[in-house]
Structures are given as structure tokens and as C-alpha cells.
Amino acid sequence: MQVARNHPRCGVCGTKLVKNGTTSAGRTRWRCKACGASTVRSRVDVTRRAQLDRFVGWLLNPSPQCSLGGTGRSFRASTAWCWNVEVPQPTVTGEVLPTVMLDGTYLQGWCLLIAFSGQHVLGWQWCDRESKPAWTALLERLPAPEMVVVDGGLGVAAALSECWPTTQVQRCYFHIFQTITRHLTMNPRLDAGKQLRVLTKALMKVEDLDQARAWIVEYLAWEAQWDQFLKHRSYPGTHKERPAWLGAHQHWWYTHRELRKCRALFRGLLHRNELFTWLTLGNVPLPRTTSPLEGGPNKAIKDLLRVHRGLPEDHARRGIEWLLNTWCQFPHDPWSLAQPHQWTPTKTTRRVIDEPDGPQPGTAFSWEDGNGIQKGWAGRWHT
User: Fold this and answer.
1) CB-count burial class (<10 Å; 0-12, 13-18, 19+) for 94
2) What is the rounded CA–CA span in Å between residue 188 and residue 185?
């Protein structure tokens, strides 16, 4: 097969150019035998591609800018256009996955929602908070999996019931443990709280359905033992102030509110079958936490922002999108996303204001304003 050769033509007369040595920079000089014109051919696309590769490499593999060739200032000037390259969402293959992990992370006033399969990022969505519309925008782009692992936010629950109604839900065990710790602290004072914290720790060690049934029996026994205790009420009195959150027409409140919140949490999980879903689907236990997502893409995002601290908001978001692209199953080639208009600066035209000839009203020279040649002593008067 004949290989295509580089035969540039003269821009003046159209004759084929011949090589005529090199410049001081080592680039090939071309000369036209017909008209004698000399030129140096440049491949803008090759130059821009090299700049984009250097930019992405510096962004994802932090290193001093001066070590990438030239100075840091020259690197920033040559790669400034790379921030204009937009990173699209991952390619949706249509495969129905057994498990998808959903979680949101907050950074620089933004919230980033991520769908993760355990190995690859399936999609992301920028928003201000974890609301139902934000989660719906992400879930609508993906096929419904068999099971989804969530942290328990109200926004994701509403979006799941609308977009993925047939998908089973598993509540993340780590977030359950965090919620219980927030209500009871790490060292509960009451015996009921101590027992419930022990039950929560035992939940983290459940490995099969038999252990799951045993845990449910122990939890129901805890509820029966402390049912009357959790009904205790408190009333404002001489030595007990009225809580600020108490309504104007309320005259009492439950004494052990934090314990009741923990009981409501476990009751809801058992009622909706969101506590042991990972054991009931398939022959192999599925993930029960979002730890692969927290320790994978989320940690990489925090590390990226820590290394490149001080980035403007739009640059930080673009850098995170480049990072998430590397976590996709089929990452986009950076050069395939670049367009000529992104590296071509927009020409700005100077605005010319036509000013009429002659003085304008209110701008003419006036003796009444004190303008004119002043004569006399300009210093202090001496008396």
C-alpha cells in the first residue's frame, strides 16, 4: 500500500514546495522553485493536541508546571484554551447492572451527584443540593439496576420511586452507624442507648440470612424491653426550661427523643425491607455500603482539589469532570472533544464613539467658573 507523503504547495503560485534546510529552531523550511517564496509549514492541530495532553496530564498527575517544558507562565499561557474543552457524560451501554451506588458530595458551594457501579462511574450531575429534580436528572439517563445502595436522603428516595420503581433499595450500613452515633454519641449514658449501640455494631458483622434473622429477633426484644421507657414525657417546670423547638401550644415532649429517632430509623428500614436487601438478591452477597464510592471517586475528587487548591470555581468543576472521565468504563479521548473554536480566541472590536464637533452644552469654557489666567500672590497673606 502506498503511503501518503507530505507535498505542500506554494501559497503564491500553487507549485509544489521542496525542502530547503531548517530554521534555527529545527523546523523544516520549504521553498518554491517557481517564484522563490519560502515558508515554514505548521500543524496547528498537532500543537494543540500536544498542549491538551500536557494539560490533562498535569491536571490528573500533579507535577510542577515548570517541569513540563518551559516555565510555569508559558505552560499556563499555552494551555489556557484547554479549560474550554467540555467533558460529556459517560457513554450509556444499556447494560442492567446488579448494583449501583448513589451518593452526593459537597464542594465549593456545589453538590456533585455520582452513580457508581463499584468499578466505574456511570454518570454525574451538578446541583446545589440533593433534591428530587437533581437525582431524577441523573437517574433518567441510566437503566434501572437490580439493587441500589443509598445513604438515605429524602431526595434520592423520591427520585428512585419515580424513575426506578422496580429496583430494590439497600441502606448503607456506614451511614446507619453514623446516624445512630449522631443521636446517641459514642458513649451513651442510658442503658437503652448502650444496648442499641451494641446492636448497631453487631449489624455491621452480619454475613448471612441466619445472622440477619437472629439480629432482627434481638432488636425486637430490645423494642419490647424499652417500649414503656420510651413513652416517658417531660413537662416545663421550675427546674426544667421549655425547649426552643417546642410549639407554642405544646405542653410536653418525649423525654428520650434521640432514642425514639433511632427506633424510628430501624423500624422504617425493616418495614421497607431496606436493611438486608444485599443478602436476598442473587447467590453472591452484594455490597451493603457506599464505601467503594466514598474511597474511590469521592476521595480522588477531594485529593484533586487539595493539590490544585485555589482554582476558580469553573476550573475546579472542569477538573473534576476530567477526573471522573478517567473513572468511566469507556473514557473519552481528550483530543476527540477539542474543537477549533476552543483554541481560537474571539476577536474583540474596539468601540468607537462619535463625538460631534464644537463645544457641547455645559462643557464650554466659562470665566464665571473661575477658569482663566490667575495673577497675583499665590501664597499666604501676611498681616
Assistant:
1) exposed
2) 6
What's phi and psi for 264, nearest 5 deg? -65, -35
Top pLDDT among 266 and 376 is at 266
Q: Say if residue 87's pLDDT is above 90.
A: yes
Contact 304, 296 (CB under 8 A): no
The set of cell numbers assigned to 74 is: 508559558
pLDDT of residue 247: 84
Q: Which residue has the cell 457524560?
A: 89
Phi, psi torsion values for 128, nearest 5 degrees: -95, -25
C-alpha cell at 39: 515558508
User: Which grid cell is 119?
Assistant: 468499578
Measuring CA to CA, how many Å separate 18 from each of 25, 32, 41, 42, 180? 19, 6, 12, 15, 79
Which residues, other chains included, contact 211 with Cβ-Cβ below 8 Å and sequence gap of 6+? 205
Q: How many residues in total does the chain contain?
A: 383
Q: How far apart are CA 52 and CA 296, in angstroms?
A: 25
What are the grid coordinates assigned to 43, written together? 500543524
Q: Which residues is 124 bridged to in the sheet? A: 114
Please check the confidence at residue 241 and state whether its pLDDT lies above 90.
no
Strand partners, 18: 31
Q: Which residue carries 508546571 as its cell?
A: 65
Is the pLDDT at 258 greater than 70, yes or no?
Answer: yes
Is 115:144 a contact under the CB 8 Å cutoff? Answer: no
Residue pLDDT, tens place only, 315-346? 999 999 999 999 999 999 999 999 888 888 66
Grid coordinates of 243: 425547649
Q: Helix 173-184 to helix 257-271 angle, to the nearest 10 degrees?
A: 160
pLDDT at 215: 96
